């Protein structure tokens, strides 16, 4: 075959009456990294191309994949949490796993991974009689509460030439260090073809992924020359830290790329090139209030709000924040009025909402966990009071993609589907939005505890898909609004039809004065 891939799928089993996904006990967030070694080679003419399930990441032609994507799980010390890992070799785009080659599986508990020396567990894959399926390796680490992100751009100069018939095709691999001296992969750049002085595209990464909130933790960067057959040539490496990366707003950091083998056997060896990085040109927070342009939250709010406000008679909009410590006592809230008036959370117009948003950023401390259900339930209670068709509620939620209460949120969405309301979710930032896609019922209707939502009421889009490449904010906002609002009329009509609510004649007559009856010359 000309191309192929391996997908690793994680399913969590339950023991007895315990269901960790439905537990309300506070849990520790654990990040699990997965690698495989010596996988079965199911392809005749090429190695397997490992990829994580539900992701587009593909590692070409290797039987020893180190997956960039992590599994984030809730850990409960007092409970047994069974895990099963299945490995597949995928040669088609079918979502039906029975159509792909099964490479092996492994069972363990989350406690076994965490309790292993250095929280590193290596086990043999099994499931194919008479075959050695290779091994699977897990490393686990408790996640910090750091929610910062960093944007950086790197370039290199005079890298070693590795290809006989051309220049190198370099790419970078980032690793964060572990306590036992090992490293965990956390990011890969794109490949720049045929260039010894490459400039890679800017990328944005959560600081938590890079160093788990420890600014002085060692970050190792490997430089490789990409080869089609997967046997990428090692050019060299350098080490740094997030604090070093972020030094000085306009300062260049220059790192020597060193190849230990070449350094050991060549007396005159200096380096295999250099890599430079300029500190991000803008502050790391997605909520940063720039004097020159709106942040992504404000753009999404303004884009959607300025259209839907035309259909609201009083132009009063209740606005809530979720995930913050509030003054004066630092109490964590998941549904606080952004104008800090619990008796009247309404803001006048979308401009009033924006004003309240910016004011709240100056007042509260952003804090996890990020729970969606309280805000959804807050709006649902309002919608439940007016089910005669005279009002329809649209909840706009803007999020960085982190969600801590998926089970409760699914239940809230299922309940809300029976009410006159729709939910728009706009994802901002660089995160993978797998959880948000799960809430969007376009493909599979959201369900909870055996109940399926009677309507699809959630529309999710990642804001980054709508950013104009030339930096035109107006165009970005117009594209976003068009897509996220496209489903609202159908969702509104769906509710009205299922309730046999017929538009009143006065509502139709109110439009007549706006319609031209005859042509009159100026």
How would you characterize the overall build of this protein?
The protein has 522 residues and is of the alpha+beta class. The chain folds into 3 domains: 5-17 and 26-142, Immunoglobulin-like (Sandwich); 149-276, C2 domain (Immunoglobulin-like, Sandwich); 296-499, 3-Layer(aba) Sandwich (Rossmann fold). The protein is 20% helix and 29% strand. It has a 4-stranded mixed beta sheet with strand order 3-1-5-6. The radius of gyration is 26 Å and the shape is globular. The N and C termini lie far apart (71 Å). Residues 1-25, 50-56, 279-284 and 506-522 have low confidence and may be disordered. Keywords: Calcium, Metal-binding, Repeat.
Properties at a glance:
522 residues, alpha+beta, Immunoglobulin-like, Rossmann fold, 3 domains, four-stranded mixed β-sheet, four-stranded antiparallel β-sheet, 12 helices, disordered N terminus, disordered C terminus
Brief overview:
This protein has 522 residues and is of the alpha+beta class. The protein contains twelve helices and 28 strands.
Instruction: Tell me about the largest β-sheet.
Output: 4 strands, mixed
Instruction: Provide the CATH top-level class of the largest domain.
Output: Alpha Beta
- Helix tally? 12
State the domain count: 3
Beta-strand residue fraction: 25-35%
**Radius of gyration (Å):** 26 Å
């Amino acid at each position: 075959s000309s191309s192929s891939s391996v997908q690793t799928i994680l399913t969590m089993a339950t023991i007895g009456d315990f269901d960790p996904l439905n537990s309300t006990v506070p849990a520790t967030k654990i990040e699990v990294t997965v690698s495989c070694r010596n996988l079965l080679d199911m392809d005749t003419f090429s190695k397997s191309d490992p990829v994580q399930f539900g992701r587009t990441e593909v590692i070409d032609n290797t039987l020893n994949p180190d997956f960039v994507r992590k599994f984030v799980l809730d850990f409960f010390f007092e409970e047994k949490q069974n895990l099963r890992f299945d490995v597949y070799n995928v040669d088609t785009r079918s979502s039906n796993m029975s159509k792909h080659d099964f490479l092996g599986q492994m069972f363990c508990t989350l406690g076994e991974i965490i309790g292993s020396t250095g929280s590193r567990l290596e086990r043999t894959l099994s499931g194919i009689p008479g075959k050695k399926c290779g091994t699977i390796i897990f490393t686990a680490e408790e996640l910090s509460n750091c929610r910062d992100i960093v944007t950086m751009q790197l370039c290199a100069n005079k890298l070693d030439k590795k290809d006989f018939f051309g220049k190198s095709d370099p790419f970078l691999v980032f690793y964060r260090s572990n306590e036992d001296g090992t490293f965990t992969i956390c990011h890969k750049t794109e490949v720049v073809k045929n260039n010894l002085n490459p400039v890679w595209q800017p990328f944005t990464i959560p600081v938590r992924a890079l160093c788990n909130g420890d600014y002085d933790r060692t970050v190792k960067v490997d430089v490789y020359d990409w080869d089609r057959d997967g046997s990428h040539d090692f050019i060299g490496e350098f080490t740094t830290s997030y604090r070093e990366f972020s030094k000085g707003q306009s300062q260049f950091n220059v790192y020597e790329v060193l190849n230990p083998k070449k350094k050991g056997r060549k007396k005159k060896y200096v380096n295999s090139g250099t890599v430079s990085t300029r500190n991000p040109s803008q502050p790391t927070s997605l909520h940063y209030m720039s004097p020159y342009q709106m942040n992504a939250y404000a753009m999404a709010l303004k884009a959607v709000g300025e259209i839907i406000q035309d259909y609201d008679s009083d132009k009063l909009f209740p606005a809530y924040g979720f995930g913050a410590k509030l003054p004066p006592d630092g109490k964590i809230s998941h549904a606080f009025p952004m104008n800090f008036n619990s008796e009247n959370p309404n803001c006048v117009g979308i401009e009033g909402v924006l004003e309240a948003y910016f004011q709240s950023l100056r007042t509260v401390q952003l804090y996890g966990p990020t729970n969606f259900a309280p805000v959804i339930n807050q709006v649902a209670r309002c919608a439940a009071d007016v089910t005669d068709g005279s009002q329809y509620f649209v909840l706009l939620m803007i999020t960085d993609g982190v969600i801590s209460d998926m089970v409760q949120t699914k239940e809230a969405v299922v309940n809300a589907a029976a009410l006159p309301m729709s939910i728009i979710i706009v994802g901002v930032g660089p995160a993978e939005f797998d959880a948000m896609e799960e809430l969007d019922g376009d493909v599979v209707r959201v369900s909870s505890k055996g109940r399926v939502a009677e309507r699809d009421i959630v529309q999710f889009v990642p804001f980054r898909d709508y950013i104009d490449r030339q930096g035109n904010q107006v165009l970005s906002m117009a594209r976003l609004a068009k897509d996220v609002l496209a489903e609202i009329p159908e969702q509104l009509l769906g509710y009205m039809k299922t309730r046999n609510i017929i538009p009143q004649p006065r509502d139709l007559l109110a439009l007549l004065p706006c319609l031209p009856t005859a042509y009159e010359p100026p």
